[in-house]
Here is the input.
Amino acid sequence: MEESQFLINHYSSKLEQGKFTWESPSNIALVKYWGKKEDQIPENPSISFTLDTCKTKTTLSFRKKAKKDNGFSFELFFDGKQKADFKPKIETFLTRIERYLPFLKDYHFKIETSNTFPHSSGIASSASGMSALALCFMSIENEMTPDMSQEYFIKKASFLARLGSGSACRSIEGDLIVWGQHNEIEESSDFYGIKYPFEVHENFKNYQDTILLVDKGEKQVSSTVGHNLMHGHPFSEKRFNQANENISNLIKALKSGDLDGFIQIMESEALTLHAMMMTSLPYFILMKPNTLEIINRIWKFRKETGLHIGFTLDAGANVHVLYPETEADKIYEFIKNELVAYCENDQYIRDKVGKGAKLLI
Ligand code: PMV
Here is the structure.
């Protein structure tokens, strides 16, 4: 069993106390993960660009409990303030990962976390947040298991992050990550993300992502609810097959540098994700009028200029505008002049593809 490699029954030393800080990025899926089985196993493989600017910084301090008891002990601070409403999510995460990190009930933890992107910007922080926390726990385990390889460290961090939030397993490394078993990608796994193993054309190096914040409110539908709507969905099987095919086609586009082909797959994936939500029961429309306005303007500008501007969406109204670095000047001008007006309070984030998480202390 692939999972059993992450079980550990002995630590060569135990720590009294300590502290680690990791900074971990968000990521944007090109082929989407939407639908999961038990234990955060995806129904189809997905592939994402790791981002650079949108990050979560997490400091985990720990001290040994006087006596081990049967519960988890932790405090949680977000932007310096206690955050009681995030605690149940962390409690669930700890319960899921305890099998793989048997030291968790031996310590009291203080988790201090903050995001580089604006608070309640509508940008999901679960990928960056859960990956940063998973990495902090792995740093503790690494101190107690000094002969751990770097490769194992990364793999297990991704494995643990997945149990916090599926897409978080794609936030450990950069710049392109595959998660979920695909028959053309030998090393791919449903349990953790891996670095995209094939040739990538220059056109996709340093790819740009400007995130337009159309709706900064709370998500209308949580991703847990969204994933569940794929159970018994009339089109789910077709969709899961399509995601596999889209990855096969993306492999070709990434290799040859086919920007038009890349954009077609990426945009179709975004619209399919939204179509799944429109055709589930209950049904949801996650786009806002300004989302559509932006999409139409992107298409018009692309047609008029021949520039390679494209979009993708997460399960919400915000638009990720993606474009090659070589065309960045003209496209960024267009975004500022014509698209930003459709954002809530003119807010947007200029991001690009990044290299993955970093240990700060
Ligand atoms: O990681 P979750 O459970 O929040 O799911 C994320 C799903 C999408 O962001 C919509 C798609 C993806 O692959 O990231």
Observations:
- The two ends are 34 Å apart (CA to CA).
- The CA atoms of residues 15 and 339 lie 52 Å apart.
